[in-house]
Amino acid sequence: MRILVVGGAGYVGSHMTKLLGESGHEAVVLDNLSGGTREAVLGAELIVGDVADRGLLERVLGGRRFDGVMHFASSIQVGESVAEPAKYYRNNVAGTLNLLECMSRAGVLRLIFSSSAAVYGEPGGGPLEEDHVKAPLSPYGRTKWMVEQALGDFDRAYGLRHSCLRYFNAAGADPAGLLGECHEPETHLIPLALRAAAGRLPALPIFGTDYGTPDGTCIRDYVHVADLCRAHLLAMERLLGGAPSRAYNLGNGGGYSVRQVVEAARRASGKPVPVLESGRRHGDPARLVADARRARAELGWRPRYAELDAIVSHAWAWERRAVRRSSLPV
């Protein structure tokens, strides 16, 4: 396959680009480098540009034969989306619509879309299935749900088939240690816990200790980035085999609390993880866990790194590289 990886210099996109190359496929990366780096693009052509640039998209999509597109390019910080919704509707919705229109005109009619569990809003008590009510709590979640709805319309009108992969909590790093998370500012729990262990962060903030969970902290479903990428590859193969459009949850089907993540970070690093407890954040549900049976049944997807210690140990190996680059003691 020849795949255009939009946002392929970012966290999940760079891991996907690496997997495509290792699987014998050709990846071409389109990224504006606002949230990614050139160094993260391993073994693939990099085109620096934005999905808002219609002329560029037309040249790229029309200039060579692509079997499909994987779309990872979006703004992802929930809190920022509340403060700056215009940025999120412009980047996540308008940019994606531009991409979809150019794909349709070029006859590139297979897309894997990086969606999110944020489309669901307040969960119930158990694992969330794909048909759970969609009531996003943030502009970020609403942009993801808007794109999913637009994709349905593009499928019916233009035959653009797609898979929407709803991540729960992407985590971990390349098991070979070549890639990892490097958001700035970083907002994800596991890398923040490891930064606190490494001394790059004074303390890990814990927001809320009075939830109705066994230890009072929020429970989340963490899925290894390498497992996410394998799901993307399986989903693209399914679409190219003639399957219809579909949405899939990607998670391990279990959950870990914030305090369990702190303990896993301590085990992986061998260092204490200082924490700073504070009140709850608005919009944080007590428990958010995926029902991923559809992905298992239809894609044949099985997470290889389901255990929290494996996810955190890979992330710690990447954090140690960051520490060495900053000349701090390891």
Layout of strands and helices, then pairs:
Blueprint: E1 2-6, H1 11-22, E2 26-31, E3 45-48, H2 54-63, E4 68-71, H3 78-83, H4 85-106, E5 110-116, H5 139-158, E6 161-167, E7 169-171, H6 189-198, E8 204-207, E9 219-220, E10 222-224, H7 225-240, E11 246-250, E12 256-257, H8 258-269, E13 275-278, E14 287-288, H9 293-299, H10 308-325
Structure description:
The protein is of the alpha/beta class and 330 residues long. The strands form four sheets. A seven-stranded parallel β-sheet has the order 3-2-1-4-5-6-11, with helices on both faces. A three-stranded mixed β-sheet has the order 12-9-14. It has a two-stranded parallel ribbon with strand order 7-10. It has two domains: 2-171 and 222-250, 3-Layer(aba) Sandwich (Rossmann fold); 189-220 and 253-325, UDP-galactose 4-epimerase, domain 1 (Alpha-Beta Complex), CATH 3.90.25.10. Helix 6 packs across helix 8 (258-269) and helix 6 (189-198) packs across helix 10 (308-325). It contains ten helices and 14 strands. It is globular. The chain has helices at 11-22, 54-63, 78-83, 85-106, 139-158, 189-198, 225-240, 258-269, 293-299, 308-325; strands at 2-6, 26-31, 45-48, 68-71, 110-116, 161-167, 169-171, 204-207, 219-220, 222-224, 246-250, 256-257, 275-278, 287-288. The model has no long low-confidence stretch (mean pLDDT 93). Helix 1 links the parallel strand 1 (2-6) and strand 2 (26-31).
